[in-house]
């Protein structure tokens, strides 16, 4: 993964995920980081994910790419499971993205 022109090593991502797990919404935050790192999603692409974009039976994640990118179907990680009642996968306390 590349961030701001610098390569981000896998052990750094592991540290980010470990730190995220310690927070109030640890599972949500760690899964968000995992999906962004694994699939190269932009922040907006990740936080705008809605539950209807996920096919749990096939483990597919349908992503609407930004900036002229082509919509893609990605492998959904096992860590992703429905935890919120709202439309957004990574919802805030107020239910929005």
In short:
The protein is 32% helix and 14% strand. The model has no long low-confidence stretch (mean pLDDT 83).
What does this structure look like?
This protein has 97 residues and is an alpha+beta fold. The protein has helices spanning 10-21, 26-39, 43-47; strands at residues 2-3, 6-7, 54-55, 60-63, 72-75. The strands form two sheets. It has a three-stranded antiparallel beta sheet, with no helix packed on it. Strands 1-2 form a two-stranded antiparallel sheet. α1 (10-21) runs antiparallel to α2. The longest helix is centred in the middle third of the chain and has 14 residues, at 26-39. The mean pLDDT is 83.
What is the topological layout?
Elements: E1 2-3, E2 6-7, H1 10-21, H2 26-39, H3 43-47, E3 54-55, E4 60-63, E5 72-75
Helix pairs in contact: 1-2
Number of helices: 3
* Strand order across the largest sheet: 3-4-5
Mean pLDDT: 83
Strand content of the residues, in percent?
5-15%
Order of helices and strands: EEHHHEEE
Overall 3D form: globular
- Rounded to an integer in angstroms, the radius of gyration calculated over CA atoms is 13 Å
Helix content: 25-40%
Helix-strand makeup class = alpha+beta
Low-confidence stretches: none
How many angstroms does the end-to-end distance come to? 24 Å
Tell how many strands the DSSP assignment holds.
Answer: 5
Largest sheet, in brief, is: 3 strands, antiparallel
């Amino acid at each position: 993964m590349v961030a701001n022109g610098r390569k981000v090593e896998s052990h750094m991502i592991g540290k980010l995920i470990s730190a995220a797990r310690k927070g109030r919404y640890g599972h949500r935050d760690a899964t968000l980081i995992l999906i962004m790192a694994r699939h190269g999603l932009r922040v907006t692409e990740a936080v705008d994910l809605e539950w209807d974009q996920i096919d749990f039976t096939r483990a597919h994640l349908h992503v609407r790419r930004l900036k002229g990118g082509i919509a893609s179907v990605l492998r959904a990680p096992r860590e992703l499971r429905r935890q919120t009642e709202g439309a957004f996968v990574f919802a805030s306390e107020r239910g929005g993205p």
